Amino acid sequence: MWSGPRNLSTALMRSFENRKDTIVLDEPFYSYYLNKTGLKHPMYKEIIKTYSIDENKIIKKITKIPKDHKIFYQKHMTHHILEINNLEWLNMGKNCFLIRHPAKVINSYLKKNNLTNIRDIGFKKQFDIFQYVRKNFDLNPIIINSDDILKNPKKILKKLCDNLKIEFNASMTNWPKGARESDGIWGLVWYEKVNNSTSFEKYSESTLDVPKKYYDIYNECLEIFHHMNEFAL
To answer: Please, are residues 138 and 95 in contact by the beta-carbon 8 Å criterion?
Structure first.
């Protein structure tokens, strides 16, 4: 599942992890990304120390299918992928894209971290990966708008499962409260809301405006969002 930050991605990971036939993996390239870019995200020292920073070792790990589970669900942040020319491994699975209106992403991101450029929220990289998948593996990769999940979780999850050719399981609509062993250690900073949840939150309208200093980033992301949203389930 290819997502940017602040985009319901951890809640969707919870949804899949609640299936008995599924094992999940949380942002396997995050440590690699922080080490390569030198970005000082919250807990960056602990993250780099705890997880692999070797791209090839990470790819080997995520392309090895677990024996005890039917589904290997991987949550990826698009901006953690620094080079598009080393993505042949994507053909080993089904690529899905989770999108969200950029105003909602930006306003949520600013509550947790500084936004310095468009790369921080992954819209351009998500579009690049989407185009790569379309060109090389799958003309019609799955796209989900996170707002659509909130409006009708069961309907969209069932659509997602149908497109993945897996059986929908009612357990995907709720989950036990709390953190998971599968969570990255960065969950201490980023996952407070989802850790207190037991289901997808109810959809509510929110402002689609952003502070003026982010207008350029917002407008560029908005164009990408509208294009990808045309393909959403």
So the answer is: yes
Q: In what order do the strands lie in the sheet with 142-145?
A: 22-26, 71-77, 2-3, 96-99, 142-145
Please say whether the beta carbons of 21 and 70 come within 8 A: yes
| Res 62: pLDDT | 96
| Residue closest to 222 by CA, chosen among 231, 211, 209 | 209
Task: Specify whether the CB–CB gap between 23 and 69 falls below 8 A.
Answer: yes
Name the nearest CA neighbour of 146 among 100, 77, 102. 100
Contact 123, 225 (CB under 8 A): yes
pLDDT digits (tens, 9 = 90+) for 64-104: 988 889 999 999 999 999 998 889 999 999 999 999 999 99
Structural domains of the chain in order of their starting residue, each with its CATH number: 2-229 (3.40.50.300)
Please, where are the H alpha helices in the chain?
9-17, 30-37, 44-50, 55-62, 102-109, 123-136, 146-151, 153-164, 187-190, 192-195, 215-229
Q: What crossing angle do the helices spanning 215-229 and 123-136 adopt, rounded to 10°?
A: 30
| pLDDT per position as a tens digit, 147-191 | 999 999 999 999 999 999 999 999 999 999 999 999 999 999 999
Tokens 């599924």 identify what position?
A: 22
Q: What percent of the chain has pLDDT over 70?
A: 100
Query: Can you tell me the distance from the alpha carbon of 93 to that of 73, in angstroms, rounded to the nearest whole number?
Result: 10
